[in-house]
Design goal:
four-stranded antiparallel β-sheet, about 625 residues, single chain, alpha+beta
């Protein structure tokens, strides 16, 4: 049987063919390789799809390249085909959806240069790979921000203008009457004067959206108005000396620093609150993102009040004399104070001492102003010098000798600087980066200047003086385009309510006021370490010594190991009890502290109108 099977040609041929087929289907030599192999079908299908798309693109290019010139039409959007009936359907769809100008639109170099943020960082001194990675990531973010800002310029519909003089002329010679006669009727109405010669000198303040104006006379006259429509909101006489006035977060409330205390009124002139914590105040500053009202008084005391809850956040005695020169940095919320010794000190509510102390002038400081980006600070002193300081290096950039010491300074949104020299108002253009020989515009007032402020989003400079107020047109001073979510000059009542709720929800805590704003996104290592130490103290707390002897048990349950385990369990239970007691004690202390705060301070603005036992 074996010989017959071997000799038979049919059987032998079948076996040989089956062996060949098996050898062709094998992919590996050994069975161990077959067991270890795990095929990745996703990668295989991805490669197949890429190859299919590549072949289709090449086929489309060859087909389009072979089309006659007579079949192509040149249009505004790009070349198109006359006849597409002879092309396959997938190529027709591709031609219909294809972008004639693929990729992002090119950005002009001049526009990129406008939004560039300095030179690239030098990475020669970097030692670790982590620092190098962080610096590269920062560079990528900065370049992306520059490109996005340059592209978003298309959305800015308005452009800022400025005055240009002819050859042989100077813009300083152009008067306000010349400007009002040359511009349109709407812009010409922005130049006006208010003659108030009975209750002066006056202090003034604009709202954040530049819509409303607040005036306060030293002899008690207070008025709030919509200066664009000339509609009076409220007018009153507080029958007391008024040192300063300031709008709060919206045009519905404003603060008035009177002779004895500081009062808060609404836009109808109704008294809402009396802040007896702020007494004999000379200057007021409001931080809108923190809801903090900062004040300085004649005794050299600086205090911060949170107007959203009506409580005092911080206060410190500077010990530097009378504080009648005050300004806030809109970029980081730092308060700048000028002193009689020629120094300028920077303060935060978190520290009882000045963060920075700069010697700016040989005599007393008369006025301070900081631009909206927080990069430049302008100071003027009794020594008749006007200096521009770089707040990143605390070094003087420019120094101008002026005829008289400027008693008021103000920066515009486009970095123009206004200075009040007696009864003359001078405006300088781009005086921070480049030395300027002459002012941009000049205007003479009937009395000495008492307050200066550029109106936001308008080419207007407000100047209050001894006998009234003047609104001056300064072309190119205001930001041409406004962000309606940040400050909307045309907001309705409903939008105003929503904006107030949003501001309260996004309120920044006073603890975040710091010189270096880049540290806000980093981890507070000190506080984290303190929390870890407190936690470790509780975890590794040693309980009192226990005289515990486990009871003897039968059947091997009183071996040495079991006894030690029972002792350890009892110690752990006692330790947990001690930790619970410590936590309960801390919670009780915090509750008592909150109750004491509620007793001392009022929780609402209207709590002082509640009926007490004496009234009944």
């Amino acid at each position: 049987m074996e010989d017959r099977g071997k000799d038979s040609p049919r059987v032998g041929n079948k076996k040989a063919k089956s062996k060949k087929k098996k050898e062709r289907k094998r992919y590996f030599d050994t069975p161990t390789d077959i067991e270890e192999f795990t095929p990745n079908f996703n990668k295989f299908f991805q490669k197949q799809r890429r190859e299919m798309f590549r072949q289709r693109r090449e086929q489309t290019k060859r087909t389009i390249g072979g089309v006659n010139n007579t079949d192509v039409i040149q249009t505004k959007s790009g070349p198109k085909l006359k006849k597409t009936s002879h092309l396959p359907n997938d190529i027709k769809e591709y031609l219909r959806k294809a972008d004639p100008f693929p990729g992002d639109a090119p950005i002009p170099k001049d526009r990129m240069k406008k939004y560039r943020r300095g030179k690239k960082m030098n990475m020669d001194g970097i030692k670790t790979k982590h620092q190098e990675y962080d610096y590269k990531l920062k560079e990528k973010k900065l370049s992306l921000a520059v490109r996005q800002a340059a592209r978003a310029e298309l959305l800015l519909q308005e452009q800022a203008g400025f005055l240009e003089a002819d050859e042989g002329e100077d813009t300083t010679q152009i008067t306000q009457h010349d400007i009002s006669e040359s511009v349109d009727i709407t812009s010409a109405q922005k130049f006006f004067e208010l003659h108030l010669n009975q209750f002066g000198p006056y202090r003034m303040n604009y709202t954040r959206n530049g819509r409303h104006l607040l005036l306060g006379g030293q002899k008690g006259h207070v008025a709030a108005m919509d200066w664009q429509t000339k509609k009076l909101m409220c007018e009153m006489n507080v029958m007391e000396t008024v040192q300063d006035v300031k709008w709060l977060h919206l045009e519905t409330m404003f603060a008035v620093a009177q002779k004895q205390w500081t009062y808060i009124y609404d836009n109808q002139g109704i008294e809402l609150h009396c802040l007896k914590m702020l007494d004999r105040v000379l200057r007021l500053e409001f931080l809108p993102y923190h809801f903090l009202l900062a004040s300085s008084n004649a005794k050299g005391y600086l205090s911060y009040i949170d107007v959203s809850v009506g409580q005092k956040v911080a206060g410190c005695q500077t010990g530097l004399g009378r504080l009648d020169v005050m300004c806030s940095n809109p970029h980081n919320g730092i308060v700048h104070l000028g002193h009689s010794g020629g120094t300028v000190s920077l303060w935060s509510p978190n520290v009882k001492e000045p963060l920075v102390k700069m010697l700016c002038h040989g005599g007393g400081v008369r006025s301070i102003a900081v631009d909206k980006k927080g990069q430049y600070m302008a100071t003027s002193g009794v020594d008749r010098y006007l200096k521009i300081w770089d707040m990143r290096t605390y070094k003087a950039l420019q120094c101008y000798k002026i005829g008289a010491g400027a008693n008021n300074l103000a920066f515009s949104q486009r970095e123009m600087l206004a200075a009040g020299l007696g009864n003359i108002v001078q405006v300088y253009q781009d005086c921070c980066r480049v030395p300027v020989k002459s002012p941009y515009l000049s205007h003479r007032l009937p009395s000495s200047v008492q307050g200066l402020q550029f109106c936001p989003y308008e080419d207007v400079l407000g100047a209050s003086h001894g006998v009234g107020f003047a609104s001056l047109i300064i072309p190119g001073s205001g930001e041409a385009n406004f962000d309606a979510l940040e400050a909307n000059p045309y907001q309705t009542k409903k939008q105003r309510r929503h904006a107030e709720v949003k501001m309260l929800l996004e309120k920044i805590q006073p603890e975040m006021i710091t010189l270096d704003t880049s540290k806000l996104g980093q981890i507070d290592v000190k506080s984290l370490e303190q929390k870890i130490e407190e936690r470790n103290k509780l975890l590794f707390l040693k309980p009192q010594n226990l005289d515990f002897e486990p009871k003897y048990k039968m059947k091997g349950r009183s071996k040495t190991k079991r006894l030690e385990q029972r002792k350890k369990g009892v110690k752990e239970e006692r330790k947990k009890d001690v930790i619970r007691e410590v936590v309960a004690r801390k919670q009780k202390q915090s509750q008592q502290q909150k109750q004491s705060e509620l007793r001392t301070g009022s929780t609402s603005v209207l709590d002082r109108f509640k009926r007490t036992d004496r009234d009944t």
